[in-house]
Design a protein that fits this description.
This protein is mostly helical. Helix content is 36%, strand content 1%. It is built from 14 helices and two strands, in the order H-H-H-H-H-H-H-H-H-H-E-H-E-H-H-H.
Length: 362
């Protein structure tokens, strides 16, 4: 009996010892990893990802977590995704986004995709030179998330999942302003739109309808002053595989007396930049209403009507608007306008709004 009792006692101690070590067994040490993130960009040119922030699985995952994290806002109710919703092409269907204090901004939220192919600043006025700079501004903007980076860092440090993921994503394992911005930059660089019907058409995998083809020809044809050939002049500003020239332009929304937002000039302090705004990509344009920097146009029909008949002259209006400013504008027919819209709809990439790699983490 004594031997059995001794064996029983030893078994109990052994079990207790194993239980004491259980946490160490389950929670193995978390360490830095750097697995290159592989993503597809179709026929788009190879993106020029910053050499000091190459995409990794661990960094993109962290950036995705942060993009959907409400702790980044003052009252823990809003995230980046609140105003950039995947189902809407990572845009906001509201004319102006509402911040945590109940205030509204004065510009329409720009869509977030293909930012790896934007090389000339971010925001409508280009006030952020790099994407990592842009990433932190809404967090601290009083009209948006209205939080301090000090508080954000403190809140994230209280979350084990973030302490672990920062260790995996960055060799210094530090939760700080720099690493937060780099992680968000990585995730946003990973959001790519390249699989629209038009992309498939270019690859010979789909055919355009007659209306879409007529719209395509209008889009890529110059205005003919003789009137023999119909052209809508769109491609001058919305050129290349990303359908933007990445320039700051005044597209004739207002005359000088009605400039209420000086756009690029707010940043440069140069009068020649008054009312100039970054040319947005037209990819997914059918998903990202309303339109223009101030969201003044609710529909694509209203946008085309503006370019056809209502471009206003001013001291900084772009020279590419010269034909739009002529009496009668571009003289587009109702069918022309309808065809243009049909073509613009071919730029919608449904895979962008359903790709689980961009969705809120479980």
């Amino acid at each position: 009996m004594n031997n059995k009792w001794i064996l029983f006692t030893l078994a109990i101690y052994l079990l207790l010892g194993l239980m004491a070590c259980a946490d160490d067994i389950v929670e193995s040490p978390v360490s830095f990893e750097a697995t290159p993130y592989v993503f597809s960009y179709g026929s788009l040119p190879t993106p020029d990802i910053p050499s000091d922030n190459k995409l990794t699985d661990q960094g993109v995952k962290l950036g995705r977590m942060l993009f959907y994290e409400t702790l980044l806002s003052k009252d823990n109710t809003q995230s980046c995704a609140s105003c950039h919703q995947q189902k809407d092409g990572f845009s906001d269907l509201n004319r102006f986004s509402k911040g945590v204090e109940g205030q509204f901004g004065d510009r329409q939220a720009m869509p977030i995709f293909n930012l790896a192919w934007h090389y000339n600043g971010f925001f409508w006025d280009g006030r952020a030179q790099k994407l990592r700079d842009q990433a932190l501004m809404p967090i601290q903007d009083p009209l948006e998330m209205n939080e301090t980076m000090t508080n954000v860092i403190s809140k994230l440090n209280n979350e084990k999942k973030y302490k672990d993921q920062f260790k995996r994503a960055f060799v210094n394992a530090t939760i700080d302003e720099t690493n937060i911005s780099l992680a968000l930059e990585q995730f946003m660089h990973s959001i790519v739109s390249h699989d629209s019907k038009y992309d498939k058409y270019l690859a010979g995998k789909e055919k355009l309808t007659e209306a879409e083809e007529r719209g395509r020809l209008l889009f890529f044809t110059e205005f003919d002053v003789t009137g023999k050939v119909k052209g809508a002049e769109c491609f001058h500003c919305h050129a290349g595989p990303n359908f933007t020239n990445d320039e700051y332009m005044n597209n004739g929304l207002d005359n000088d007396a009605n400039f209420t937002d000086l756009g690029r000039a707010r940043v440069t302090k140069i009068n020649e930049d008054n009312a100039k705004f970054l040319t947005p990509s037209l990819r997914n344009i059918a998903l990202t209403a309303p339109y223009m920097h101030d969201g003044r146009f609710k529909t694509l029909e209203a946008v085309i009507e503006h370019y056809d008949l209502h471009v206003k002259n001013s001291s900084t209006v772009d020279f590419l608007m010269q034909y739009n400013l002529q009496p009668g504008g571009l003289k587009l027919t109702s069918e022309n306008k309808s065809d243009l819209i049909e073509f613009l709809k071919t730029l919608t990439d449904q895979s962008l709004v359903t790709n689980t790699a961009y969705a809120k983490p479980n």
